[in-house]
Structure formats: C-alpha cells, structure tokens
Amino acid sequence: MTYSDSRRLLAQASRIADAYLAALPERPVGRPVPVAQLRDLLGGPLPETGEAPDAVLERLAGAAEQGVVATTGPRYFGFVTGGSLPAAMAADWLTALWDQPAFGYIAGPAAAVAEEVAAAWMVELLGLGEGRPVSTGFTSGCTMGNFTALAAARHALLAKAGWDVEAKGLFGAPEVEVVVGAEAHASVFLALQMLGFGRARLRQVPADAQGRMRAEELPAVLAACQGPAIVCAQAGNVNSGAFDPLAAIVEATRAHGAWLHVDSAFGLWAAASPKLKHLAAGIEQADSWATDGHKWLNVGYDSGLVFVADPQAHHAAMSLSAAYLLMAQEGERDPCDWVPEASRRARGFAVYAALRSLGRRGLAELVERNCALAGRFAKRLAAEPGISILNDVVLNQVVVRFHADPGGRDDPQGDDAFSKAVIAAVQQEGTCWAGGTHWRDREAMRISVSNWSTTEADIERSADAIIRCCRAARAAKVA
Q: In this structure, what are the phi and psi dihedrals at residue 250, rounded to the nearest 5 degrees?
C-alpha cells in the first residue's frame, strides 16, 4: 500500500458518499432488516491473506445500502439525533484523515486549539457560568459528559470536607448524597453508578405531568440529606422536552450549599435562542452542565460536551500524568486533562466547523425552526381523529398516542397495543422514522425534530404517512 492507494480509496469513498447523499432525500428512512441477512453480507471467515481494499469498501457499502438508517436525512425523528451539518461532516472526514491523537497539545496543536476556541464560543453563546470561569471537555456523548461533571462535583464536595477522593477513593469518605428528579435520564443513573454513588440510594424528587421536577419539594428533600449533596436537574425531558424549573432549583441548592448539575443533552441549546432561552432561565447559575454536539448542534457521532464552573475541581478529577507524556507548557491546553479518555479522536474540529459555519444567528435559527416544525407536526397529527398529543410541545419533542377508537376514547391496554402497531407500521413504511416510548404509564410514539435539513414539506409528508398507517391499522383491526 502507498499514499497513492490511499488517495484512490478516498476517491472511491467519496463516490459512494456522493451517491448516498444524492439519494438521501427520497431514501426510505429505516426499514427493519433481518439480522441474518446482514450477517450473510458482512460475515464469513476472516480472510487468510486479506482482500483488496476497494473490494472491502464495496462490500461495506453494499451492506450499508440495506442496513444503514438514514439518520442524517430530513425525516428521521428518532432519539433526538441531529443530522451532520455539511461543514461538520467535511471537518470530520478531515479529522479521520489527520488522525490526531488528541490527548495533548504536543500531539495535536491544532486539535487542542480548535477545542479551546470552540469551547470559549459555546460558553459565551450559551451564557454559562454567570461570570465565573468555566472549563470544558469534549467527550463521547452526554453520558460521559455527566460522568465528568459529577466526578468534578464529587471532588469539590469531598475536598471541602477534607477528603482527597482521587488519592483515597471512597472507602471511609464522607457520604455524598445525590438528589435527582423522578424522570432523570438513564445516562445520569449510569454516570452515578460508575462513580460509586449507586442507584438504589439516590433521593428522588417527584415530577409533574410533563416530567419536570417539582422544585417546591426539593428543599425538604435536601433538608433530609446528612452530608454534602449533589442535585441533578434536567433541561429537556427526553420525552416531553420540558425543562425543570431551574431558577427555583438553583435557589434551593444554593441555600443548602449543594452542587447543581444540569443534564441537558439537547435542551441546553435552547439557551442559544433569544426566543427560547426563557425555558432555561436560571441554567447559567448551575455548577456544571453536559450536552451532546451530535444532537442539536448537528455534529456527527460521537460528540459530547461538559462544562464545569469550577475548573480546579474539573482538572483534579480528570487529569493524568506519566513520565513519557510531555505535557502542556505555559499557555497551552492539554485536552486529556478535562475528560476521562486520553486516546480519542480530535472531536473539536467538527464542533468548531459547525459553530463557525452557523454563527450565532444560524444556530438560533436552527433551534427555533426545529421547534416550530415540531409544533406544526403536533398540530397536524392532533387534527386527525383518534390521535392524541400527550405533551405540551414547548421544544422539539412530540409524544403521540394512537387510539383504536377514532373518537379518541383511551383504552389503556388496547391502545398500548394499537400504538405499538402503528409505530411498527410507520417504521416499516419508511417515509419517516420515529420510535416508541413508555411515558406516564402509556405506550406512545416519540417524535424529535432535530435535523438542520428538515423542512415544512418533510413534516407534512411524514404526518401524511403516520396518519395513513394509523388508519390502515384501525381498518385491519376492524376487519
């Protein structure tokens, strides 16, 4: 193999990518494919001598034609997955080409500075910290962003109690209490269990009908805590999109001397919008935040972000050292000092490209347009007999319930099965893709409008398809 071979293969990959993008607007978004079929296409014994690289690419592309979900397309509404902005996608290609080991400035100076610049832009754009210094890390996703922020919280609270958790661990340490809302995201629980806080010993605050923490009950929960406390709030419920009442939560946590972390995988980006930032009022006063770039910033996977308004605690919880690592000199920034991973790709290039290509106004417009489209989607579906919208559509999330009775009378068990049948039909039909969820003890469809390329025409076309599937499922049930 030579660099000429690499150039030839990249040209081949570019042709495959061009064909995929050309077909994307009309491609079925995602149809179930038998796993055995994909195993036949991709499997078999490992070649003894290896195959020609161009043949390998063709094999991958052939399997992908059947087994890749069009998550980058305009009618994918599952899992709050944004597409990949053109600038971010191209930057990510270059990231793979440059293959920078982005642990330190010395290994990738441009990668380190791209992260530094993009981080400063985001802190200012989102208004985080309320004048306090804020440190940033680029993680694999919001789960590891939550992990990093909560590790910083653990350090800060235990250091205040005279305990060095990084040196001594948790054996014999003062007990840290953790308070979460009843509808906290699963990634928060995963991060907490990895940090040694456990899942069964957390204190929960009840949630209202939209999944928001009942902030009026938080002071009593905090009063029952015996030691240092962390409060985990949420900006953007994974189903409804609702925000916890952050200003009231800030007041209660500060009165108790607790650390406030906000899990905001997609909701944090509302703070970039003049029209929507009222939803996140008070978020700037938290102590840490985690979000995803591969959601509403529309950067390709994987891209998570963590922000901490205590850089010393953040650095102490994450930094590593070894004799062979020539670490940052004065004025330089080593990315590995702010995240759990040393070996990782240079995630900052794509984030930098996305922010620079959008600008302040472009990002706000993207968020606002998606929210308006979600409202349009909800209104269109709600006009169809036998379809109910279960949430207040305040952001980009729509929760949809399908009723076997076109009059809309809810049959808890029957409509659970009927909703599942409609969701399966929509996924099989392929015009759009939306997933199912179990929310407020009911089965429902969860729609997330998060893609830069989605238009009003895409919403109308998708709503038509969902309504057709609902009517067909009802007709089949009657028959």
A: -60, -45
